[in-house]
Amino acid sequence: MTSFQTYLRAHRPLCVAYESVRWLKHKLFGWAELRTPVWYGFGCRPQNARKESLPIDAQWYRICRPLYMHEHVYYNLDNALAVNPNIKGFAFIFFMGIGDYLYATPVLEALKKKYPTIPFYGYVGKQFDRNNSPLVGKLLSENPHFEKVFYFDGMRHPLVWKNYDYSVALKDVPENFLVIPVYYEYGTHIRHRVSSLFDTFDLPIPENIPAPQMYFPATVSVEVADYLNQARNGACNKKGIVFLQLDSRGSNYVYPFIKELALGLIKEGYFVMSVTKGGPIDDKNYLEIDIKKLSINQTWQLLATLKKEFALYVIAVNSVFWAASAGLDLPNLGLQHWIDKKVHNLWYPNIQVVTDYIYPLLPRGKQIQAPLESYTRHNKKIIDYKPTWILRWFKETFGDKR
Predict the structure, then answer these.
(1) DSSP conformational letter for 296
(2) What's the predicted TM-score (pTM) here?
(3) Backbone phi, then psi, for 82, in 5-degree steps?
(4) What is the per-residue pLDDT across 272-322, written as a single tens digit (0 to 9) for each?
(5) Sign of CA dihedral 248, 252, 253, 259
(6) Would you give the DSSP letter of residue 95?
(7) H or E, element range at 231
(8) pLDDT greater than 90 at residue 2
(9) Which of 246, 314, 320, 397 suits a disulfide with 99, CB 3.0-4.6 Å?
């Protein structure tokens, strides 16, 4: 990335002005743009092709320019393989959070089934920022469809998230590997994040949106075994286990009444586990997961194991455990803590959504409308649901399922 681009990214107002002018120029003079190779297209799906009119050089293997605002890239990997027999592998570039990665797993699985002999390499940004979590790299390393995983120093774009700077990653991409940023669309016009990914990669879109795919070691680690023993002892003779995830990196939110909610659930006869701090850690019926001791995948493996032995439920704000609960097939009381008219992009049928705004693109029977008295204002955008109301909704929705 040039020093000029670095300067622009560091000064958001200038960046917004620059990208706006660039987008306007594209709208007015888009016909004069450079042609793209046959294996991807800006804003449109590449037609099937068996010949390439552009030179197949180093630039052919990567996206030729940054995207404009609201622009999307569509891939046709069959075209790439048809016109270029020298392709040695696919280099997938990830600049996303853990939840984003989970939505991508059914597509990655489908691609590996379609191209079983082609090596898949993963490239992940090594820094935490609004777009990216380096923990995605750990998940990719446990994904059997990927042969190698690399990390790179990247930089988010303040306006167009798809223009994440991954240029440093290119030095680790072997010769003749296609460089494929993992893009998706997110909007009111999109059916679901997963369907958008299938569409992006020119794969048949399943009628029923597939849940995230999770991959665990054959045996549990010592750390997971220790938490298993604690949970088993605590959950013995209880109605079940309620798992809490009440913080969101994307919305910079932490639910302020975790202790009160956990104690209410304990009083109702449940054992409570949480990855969000703030609960009653001195209570023997409560177990807080130390994320420094367990990786996110180990936490999922812990829950997958406990599910075989106990009734297990999730209460989670809209964050990674919406997708994770679907992958684990766990009933989830999902707390939608701010109005997001694109939330149907992230929803799965296992989630009963608590909301102060009824979403027309979500099934009405899967929404619990929260009355004014059931929440307080966290800030202008976000609300806090009162613990007594969450407990009430939980009991009405799931009750005692033993």
Answers:
(1) H
(2) 0.93
(3) -70, -40
(4) 999 999 999 999 999 999 999 999 999 999 999 999 999 999 999 999 999
(5) positive
(6) -
(7) helix 222-235
(8) no
(9) 320
| pLDDT the model gives residue 32 | 56
Beta bridge partners of 149: 122
Instruction: Give the strand pairing for 73-75 and 40-42.
Output: antiparallel
Strands 383-385 and 375-377: antiparallel
14 vs 86 pLDDT, higher one: 86
The CA-CA-CA angle for residues 383, 312, 352, to 5°, reads: 40
Q: Is the dihedral of CA 195, 163, 214, 353 positive or negative?
A: negative
CA dist 236 and 240 (Å) reads: 8
Exposure class string for 237-267: b at 16+ Cβ within 10 A, else e = ebbbbbbbbbbbeebebebebbbbbbbbbbe
DSSP tag of 338: B
Q: Assess whether pLDDT exceeds 70 at residue 261.
A: yes
Buried b (16+ CB within 10 A) or exposed e, 321-344: bbbbbbbbebbbbbbbbbebeebb
Provide φ and ψ at 361, rounded to 5°.
Answer: -100, 5
DSSP state letter for 127: S
Q: Output the CA torsion sign for 202, 203, 206, 211.
A: negative
Residue 299's identity, in one-letter code, is T
For residue 140, count CB atoms less than 10 angstroms from its CB and return exposed for 0-12, middle for 13-18, buried for 19 or more: buried
Nearest Cα neighbor of 193 from 90, 323, 316 is 323
The angle formed by the CA atoms of residues 120, 163 and 87, to the nearest 5 degrees, is: 30
The pLDDT tens digits for 332-366 are 999 999 999 999 999 999 999 999 999 999 999 99
**Kindly report the CA angle at 70 between 193 and 46, in degrees rounded to 5?**
75
Q: Which two tokens stand for residue 226?
A: 């220790």
402 pLDDT band (50/70/90 cuts)?
very low
Q: Of all helices (H) and strands (E), which one includes residue 315?
A: strand 312-317
Residue 329, φ and ψ in degrees, nearest 5: 55, 55
**High-pLDDT (> 70) share of the chain, %:** 97
